[in-house]
Every structure is written in structure tokens, then in C-alpha cells.
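Researcher: Please predict.
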Amino acid sequence: MDTTSLPFLLAVASLVLGVVAAAIFVYVVIPKQRRAKAKAATPPAPKAEPQPPSPEPEEPVPAKRAAKVKQHSLFVIFSHPDATTDERLTEWLRGKEASYDAIKKVFFIKGKQPSNPITIANAFPPGEMPDLLQGETHEPIRGISLLVKPPLHKRRNQQMYVYVELAKELNETFSGNLLDAEQQPASESTYTHIIG
């Protein structure tokens, strides 16, 4: 009787341990995963919050908001994209001594702070640009995104001036629509917010 009760006791013990492990998984691990997913899904909401107050003329609000922005975005949407638009964009990029990153498929413009370059990316589809400088074949580019990280210190915002000027210049050159990160027409208050 002792020889049969030992395997039975071990089986019951392993079954109890299995139930305990399942309970720990259900009550501890799954809620942690849900919280992590919820936390990962929430960063876009705070990013949207800082934008509406930016038109306010108060100095402290834009400065405080600029510290929270991970990356400034402006979009230039071309009014009549075609092969000539692409040729003009290629010449514009050459004039700005832009360099192409084949891995990220974007252009970089050094500006005043080469350690924090201005990124030129395709707006449609978001991200990937063809290597215009090498004549890579592609569909006509319908618009571009200009991206830059804000400076860590307000006094080092020279690149933000370059960034805003490049966006305005592109908009004028291509008679496009210049939009902010919220896809709204960019205004002087948008530029003030970016420059800080």
C-alpha cells in the first residue's frame, strides 16, 4: 500500500502546484501584461495634449511643453506632385547638402547642429524616401515630413530656427500646404512653439 500511495501523493502534489502556478499566472502575470500594453498605448494621448495650448501667448507654457515633445513634425504636402516636383526636390536636397541613409530610407540635413540633424522623410506612405540623389525609380512624391528632436536646453535651439526656415522654404518652393503635427495648417504660433 505504501508503494502505491507515494506516486498518488506526488501526482496530487504536482496537480496542486500546477493549479497554484496557473493561479499566479492568471492573477499576476496577465494583469502586468495588460498594464504594460495600456501604458504603451497611452503615450500618443499626452503627445496630443501639449499641442492645443501652444497658440497661447504665455511664455512658460510653450517652454514647458517643448520639453515634453520627443520630436517636432511638420509636413509639406505638394499641390501637384509629378516628375518635375521630384526633380525640383532632388535639386533642393542637393542644395542643402542632404545625405541619404539607405537603412532608414530618409535624408538628413545637418543644419547648425550635425549631432541633431533634420530628417526629411516621405509623408505618403509615411517614412521611406527613394534615393533621389542616385535617381532611384519611384512613384511621384506627394509630400514630405520634416522631423527634428527638440534641444535639451532652450539656449541651444539654433537647429529649431533652421528647421522652421527649411519648412517655410519648402512650402514656398513647392506651393504646398504646410501642416503641423496635428495635420492642421502651420501658423506663426506653431513656429514660436517649435523654436521655444
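Model: Residues 43-67 have pLDDT under 50 and may be disordered.
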